[in-house]
């Protein structure tokens, strides 16, 4: 009997572990911020004064983006493979 595949649920898609890109950026002379993002989700980038602030903003944005793609019936990008040490 052939195996049936079902489309992933929104909950499944929201559990995808994307590789986090973190940078310290100078936003003004002598003023630094933490910029975080997921390269696989274009535009999914956030900044904050602390890594926690930036990550909190990024996660909100990621949930919004994945939910919107899901509701529009568009594919949600898969994460890239993590770097190996």
UniProtKB/TrEMBL annotation:
InterPro entries: TTHA1013/TTHA0281-like (IPR035069). This is Type II toxin-antitoxin system HicB family antitoxin.
